[in-house]
C-alpha cells in the first residue's frame, strides 16, 4: 500500500499538474483516459475521477482537494477567526490559503469584520491569491525564511500556524516518516518565535515510530494536543495531523 502511494507521488509534479488541469474539463472530453499514458498516470487519473472531493473542489473553485481537510478541521475546532494572522507552510498550489483567506477575512470581503493576514510559504511557485502574501520558492524550515515571515506578520506574531508540508517521498516509509517529523520539529521552532500565547499549530505528519515523541514535544508547549485523520484524507495514506491548541509561551 505504501509502495503504491509512493508510486503515485513519484509521478513528476509537472505531469500531475497537467493531468489535474485536464481533469477540470474531463466531462467534456471522455477520451481522456484513452490517451497514451503510463499505467501509474492511468491509475492516478482514475482515482481522481472517482474522488468526490476532487469534484467538489472544482465546483467550489478550490485549487485542490486538500481544502476539504482544512475546512473539516476548522468547522470542528474554529481555529480561523476573522482578523487572525495565519501562516500556511507548504502552501502550493494554495487551497489551504484559499480557505484561510475566506475564514480570516484577509481579502476584506466583509467590511464589517476585522481583516486578517495570511502568509503562505512553499518551495514551489504559488499562484497569486487576493488576500494572501506568498513566499514562493522559500524553504519554511530555513531560518532566513522564518525571519522574513516575521516581518510580514502584524507585530511579528501569528494566531495560527498551518502546515500541510510533505517532503518528496523516497519510497522508504521510515525515512520519509523521519523527514516529515524533522520538518514538524522545525515548525515547533517557528511556533516559539511567531505564535501568540493561546495560538494553535496544525501540522501534517506521516504516522510512524517517532509520532509519539513529536506529540510529547507538542504537549510540553500546548495545553491541548490531538491527532486527527479528516475524512478527506485518503484512507490508504499514512497522513495524519497533529492539532496543538492553546500555546503556552515559555517564560523569557
Ligand atoms: C500536499 S502539498 C500542500 C497542499 C496545500 N496545503 C494546498 O492546499 O494547496 C505539500 C507542499 O509542501 C511543500 N513543501 C515541502 N517541503 C517544504 C519546505 N521545506 N518548505 C516549504 N514548502 C515545502 C511542497 O512543495 C508541496 O507543495
Automatic annotation (TrEMBL):
Similarity remark: Belongs to the class I-like SAM-binding methyltransferase superfamily. RNA methyltransferase RlmE family.
UniProt cross-references to InterPro entries, sorted A to Z: RNA_methyltr_RlmE, RNA_MeTrfase_FtsJ_dom, rRNA-MeTfrase_E, SAM-dependent_MTases_sf
Species for this entry: Salarias fasciatus
Reaction catalyzed: uridine(1369) in 16S rRNA + S-adenosyl-L-methionine = 2'-O-methyluridine(1369) in 16S rRNA + S-adenosyl-L-homocysteine + H(+)
Listed name of the protein: rRNA methyltransferase 2, mitochondrial
Compartment annotation: Mitochondrion
Annotated GO MF terms: rRNA (uridine-2'-O-)-methyltransferase activity
Domain of life: Eukaryota
One GO term of the biological process aspect: mitochondrial large ribosomal subunit assembly
Chief location of this protein within or outside the cell: mitochondrion
Primary role: S-adenosyl-L-methionine-dependent 2'-O-ribose methyltransferase that catalyzes the formation of 2'-O-methyluridine at position 1369 (Um1369) in the 16S mitochondrial large subunit ribosomal RNA (mtLSU rRNA), a universally conserved modification in the peptidyl transferase domain of the mtLSU rRNA. This activity may require prior 2'-O-methylguanosine modification at position 1370 (Gm1370) by MRM3. Essential for late-stage assembly of mtLSU required for efficient translation of mitochondrial DNA encoded proteins; methyltransferase activity is not required for this function.
Keywords, comma-separated and alphabetical: Methyltransferase, Mitochondrion, rRNA processing, S-adenosyl-L-methionine, Transferase, Transit peptide
PANTHER family: RIBOSOMAL RNA METHYLTRANSFERASE, RRNA METHYLTRANSFERASE 2, MITOCHONDRIAL
Gene Ontology CC, one term: mitochondrial matrix
Annotated Ribosomal RNA methyltransferase FtsJ domain residues: 62-245
Catalytic residues as annotated in Swiss-Prot or TrEMBL: 204 (proton acceptor)
Amino acid at each position: 500500500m505504501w509502495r503504491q502511494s509512493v508510486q503515485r507521488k513519484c509521478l513528476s509534479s509537472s505531469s500531475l499538474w497537467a493531468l489535474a488541469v485536464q481533469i477540470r474539463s474531463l466531462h467534456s472530453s471522455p477520451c481522456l483516459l484513452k490517451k497514451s499514458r503510463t499505467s501509474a498516470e492511468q491509475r492516478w487519473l482514475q482515482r481522481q475521477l472517482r474522488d468526490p472531493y476532487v469534484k467538489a473542489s472544482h465546483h467550489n473553485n478550490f485549487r485542490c482537494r486538500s481544502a476539504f481537510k482544512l475546512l473539516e478541521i476548522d468547522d470542528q475546532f474554529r481555529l480561523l477567526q476573522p482578523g487572525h494572522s495565519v501562516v500556511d507552510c507548504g502552501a502550493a498550489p494554495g487551497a489551504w490559503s484559499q480557505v484561510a483567506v475566506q475564514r480570516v477575512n484577509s481579502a476584506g470581503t466583509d467590511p464589517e469584520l476585522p481583516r486578517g493576514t495570511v502568509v503562505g510559504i512553499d518551495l514551489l511557485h504559488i499562484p497569486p491569491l487576493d488576500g494572501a502574501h506568498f513566499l514562493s520558492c522559500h524553504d519554511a524550515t530555513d531560518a532566513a525564511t522564518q525571519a522574513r515571515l516575521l516581518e510580514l506578520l502584524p507585530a511579528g506574531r501569528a494566531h495560527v500556524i498551518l502546515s500541510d508540508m510533505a517532503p518528496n517521498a523516497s519510497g522508504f516509509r521510515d525515512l520519509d516518516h523521519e523527514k516529515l517529523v524533522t520538518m514538524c520539529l522545525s515548525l515547533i521552532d517557528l511556533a516559539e518565535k511567531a505564535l501568540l500565547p493561546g495560538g494553535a499549530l496544525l501540522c501534517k505528519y506521516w504516522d510512524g515510530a517517532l509520532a509519539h515523541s513529536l506529540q510529547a514535544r507538542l504537549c510540553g508547549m500546548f495545553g491541548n494536543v490531538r491527532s486527527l485523520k479528516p475524512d478527506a484524507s485518503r484512507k490508504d495514506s499514512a497522513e495524519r495531523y497533529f492539532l496543538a491548541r492553546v500555546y503556552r509561551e515559555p517564560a523569557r
